[in-house]
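Reminder to self: tokens first, then the designed residues, so the page reads top to bottom the way the pipeline ran.
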């Protein structure tokens, strides 16, 4: 069984892939942000870019504005997976991937074989580093622009801004709703990445992950800020898939799935 295709886009479908990597976007981002990864996906994997409500193919649906509500919905459809899968998230996407994993474990559902987190500290991002939900439009947009990334460019166009601003506001409300919980270390391999000059997720804040994963790789820092991964797609995607391959070698596979990566 595959999970509900409404929730994801596979740019190169691979029904026989040994593992599916679900990639979740940052605030204001969509599934298309992972299209540049396509040339770097190994043949044994399928990349599925997650479609969140309120944007692109799901623009008629209301956006999530609460972390646990969104993560619970994600965990619900991921629980349909009956084959190895992994989760990668950038910023808000990393937060949702983490909380969804916690829900899956609590429910006794199949968890991901690997969790990869970029630019998000497990204890949460300090509220003052993000746009506030009660900021007026000009202040809010200025703070988003200060973070960099594609969303800041979209806000420069008045017509596009009218479309994307409600999604951004909902996304940052979701980010502010995150509540840190003391929980046992995650049992699956976890990799953590960050930008050395990230003003939002400062490098030192990523060290807290060490208490939340039994098998942690990182934190690994890269030159750049909060969107470093968009500036070095080939290098970064190669690292993520390399660590996914290592995680997959620890998981029993059905006999008909052939050699491991």
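Designed residues (261 positions):
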């Amino acid at each position: 069984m595959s999970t509900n295709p409404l929730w994801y886009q596979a740019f190169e479908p691979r029904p026989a892939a040994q593992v599916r990597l679900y990639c979740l976007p940052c605030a204001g981002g969509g599934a298309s942000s992972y299209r540049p990864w396509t040339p770097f996906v190994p043949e044994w994997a399928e990349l599925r870019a997650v479609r969140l409500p309120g944007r692109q193919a799901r623009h008629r649906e209301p956006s999530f504005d609460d972390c646990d509500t969104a993560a619970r919905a994600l965990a619900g459809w991921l629980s349909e997976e009956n084959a190895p899968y992994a989760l990668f998230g950038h910023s808000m996407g990393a937060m949702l991937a983490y909380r969804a994993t916690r829900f899956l474990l609590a429910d006794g559902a199949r968890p991901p074989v690997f969790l990869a987190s970029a630019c998000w500290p497990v204890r949460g991002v300090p509220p003052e580093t993000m746009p506030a939900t009660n900021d007026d439009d000009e202040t809010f947009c200025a703070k988003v622009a200060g973070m960099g990334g594609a969303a800041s460019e979209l806000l420069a166009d008045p017509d596009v801004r009218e479309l994307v601003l409600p999604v951004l506001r909902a996304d940052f409300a979701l980010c502010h709703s995150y509540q840190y919980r003391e929980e046992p270390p995650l049992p699956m391999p976890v990799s953590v990445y960050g930008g050395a000059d990230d003003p939002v997720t400062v490098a030192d804040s990523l060290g807290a992950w060490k208490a939340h994963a039994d098998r942690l790789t990182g934190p690994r820092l890269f030159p750049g800020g909060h969107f470093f991964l968009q500036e070095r797609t080939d290098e970064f995607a190669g690292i993520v898939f390399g660590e996914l391959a290592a995680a997959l070698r620890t998981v029993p596979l059905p006999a008909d799935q052939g050699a491991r990566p």
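The chain is about 30% helix and 15% strand.
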